[in-house]
Design brief:
alpha+beta, Nucleotidyltransferase, domain 5, Methane Monooxygenase Hydroxylase, Chain G, domain 1, seven-stranded mixed sheet, 17 helices, 38% helix, 20% strand, globular
Length: 530
């Protein structure tokens, strides 16, 4: 009896797989690293074959942990970062690198989501003010696919001439698993300027403005998309053998990783008016806040509103930060008392911060103020060129000095979340509860700050991995274990614990927030000087 599911999440540094039953219980989980090459000019590249290898290893290991046989798996689902995979007309990897590494050059065929090489292309598109931009907060980020494809065509014309497929990473994974070139509504709507509200989907005038009249044909891009919870088809014999599964397993349409996390924590509210009063905060290398509404509520710097990017007849909107977990890692690496930011070092820092707070209370790190825009500001400024600021540094190179800097970085990140939420409220959103998913749930500092700094109730899910759970929910619908996303969300939600803001800390964080906004103004003043 096929009554279990495989969910795969491909992040920035690893591929993870989980095995779930139809009630959302996680029975096995595995993770394998993926390679990333960083180059000059903010270039970052993956190898899609390396990603597939890590995916297969993770699925096999997770299945082994679960003790299940392949014939118990009804469906497999994939979520991934919004990286761009480029393949040639034969479906083989095609290099996106300006560097030539000989015979292995075509292995680096994926522009990583965080790659900012396409800033000039995004600038040109945004200056044109095309109506399509209204569904992306008024501007396109260089992290989206159309600017990246423009860069590819303009800078690597010989490789563009060989291009046969352009994939969002989640769609590449479903193609690699099934052989079907079908694309997810989730990915094309959110990252490719596709509109599920129009018959054609694509705005050809906008593509012509971008110089991409040939992109649909060159990239084998369809005019129709599959809703989240749809089936792409069955596993191909080759993919089934590589994954350790069988061809009776259905492949679900893919999701963007953050949106899988939103489904995982908000699925139980699907179909209820409560959905619009809840927001998902998905933390990891970057962070995203995701909300759903029945009517479109556009706003500057908010990605969306995207129609049916996850739930049917709902708009999704996203506000986000480009570097959160990555920023904490960066602070650890650059401090004299830091080092390689592995799990154990983060744990030591968080533990020491708890001791220092017992002694110093709200005065811990007093005088340190940070703008966390070290990789640009997605929301609410929509400025990929924004840079970070630290005010109040001393000559302290001790471990406690690192802990103070780490603590104030955590505070600044959540002040940034508050900035996004308050901006969303000006556009009509009303958020009462934040539902956490991703890496933030493992950092007790960020959990309590999300409540205390924003003044909202925070719910931490009991599910071991809400991002994988959301992908499993979509797979459960594709595999016929649940009728729709509403049913899957209600059946598979594992509950959660609530964290309420502490009134006695409100004044201190309000003061921090005023200083945070002042630093934004001061940075702008400095940048405006001749």
């Amino acid at each position: 009896m096929r009554d279990h599911l495989v969910a795969v999440d491909v992040g920035t540094t690893s591929a993870r797989a989980g095995i779930f039953d139809r009630q959302g219980q996680l029975l096995g989980k595995a993770r394998h690293p993926i390679r990333m090459r960083r180059g000059a000019d903010q270039h970052a590249e993956h190898s899609s074959e390396d990603i597939w290898r890590a995916t297969c290893l993770s699925v096999r290991e997770a299945l082994h942990q679960s003790g299940l046989q392949a014939d118990r798996i009804a469906a497999i689902g994939f979520d991934a970062t919004c990286s761009l995979v480029v393949r040639d007309t034969a479906g083989k990897p095609l290099s996106v690198s300006v560097e030539d590494e000989g015979s292995d050059a075509d292995g680096w065929d994926t522009i990583v989501w965080l790659d900012h090489r396409a800033i000039p292309q995004a600038d040109r598109l945004n200056a044109g003010g095309h109506p399509v931009l209204a569904s992306s907060g008024g501007s396109l980020s260089p992290e989206m696919q159309i600017p990246k494809i423009m860069w590819l065509k303009e800078n690597l014309p010989q490789r563009w001439a060989k291009t046969g497929f352009l994939f969002d990473l989640a769609d590449f994974l479903t193609w690699r698993a099934s052989g079907s070139p079908s694309r997810s509504r989730c990915t094309l709507t959110a990252k490719w300027t596709y509109s599920a509200r129009t018959e054609e989907g694509w705005n050809h005038d906008f593509l012509a403005t971008a110089g991409l009249d040939d992109a649909l044909e060159r990239g084998s891009l369809p005019t129709s998309t599959l809703a989240v919870g749809s089936s792409v088809g069955a596993l191909s014999p080759e993919a089934a053998a590589e994954l350790g599964l069988d061809t009776g397993c259905v492949v679900a349409a893919g999701l963007i990783d953050a949106y899988a996390g939103a489904l995982g924590v908000l699925g139980a509210s699907a179909g209820s008016p409560e959905l619009e009063r809840n927001l998902a905060l998905i933390g990891g290398t970057s962070s995203c806040v995701v909300a759903f509404t029945r009517r479109a509520l556009p706003g500057h710097s908010l990605w969306g509103p995207y129609y049916e990017a996850v739930f049917g007849d709902h708009f999704l909107v996203e506000g986000s930060q480009s570097a959160t977990g990555a920023l904490l890692d960066h602070m650890v690496r650059m401090h004299a008392a830091g080092g390689e930011p592995d799990t154990e070092l983060h744990r030591r820092i968080v533990s020491r911060i708890a001791e220092l707070r017992e002694r110093e209370g709200v005065r811990l790190g007093e005088g340190l103020h940070i703008l966390p825009d070290f990789h640009g500001n997605r929301s609410p400024l929509a400025d990929p060129r924004a840079t970070g600021v630290i005010s109040g540094l001393t000559l302290d190179t001790s471990f406690d000095g690192l802990c103070r800097l780490y603590w104030r970085t955590c505070v600044s990140l959540v002040l940034g979340v508050r900035h996004i939420l308050e901006t969303m409220e000006t556009y009509g959103y009303r958020i009462e509860t934040l539902h956490l998913a991703g890496g933030h749930v493992h950092n007790p500092l960020l959990v309590e700050l999300c409540a205390d700094v924003t003044g909202r109730v925070v719910r931490v899910p009991d599910a071991g991995d809400a991002v994988l759970l959301g992908t499993a929910m979509a797979a459960a619908v594709a595999g016929g274990l649940h009728a729709d996303l509403d049913a899957a969300g209600n059946a598979m939600d594992r509950g959660g614990s609530l964290h309420r803001p502490r009134p006695d800390l409100r004044d201190a964080y309000d003061r921090d927030y005023r200083r945070f906004l002042a630093m934004h103004r001061h940075r702008a003043e400095l940048e405006a000087m001749d």
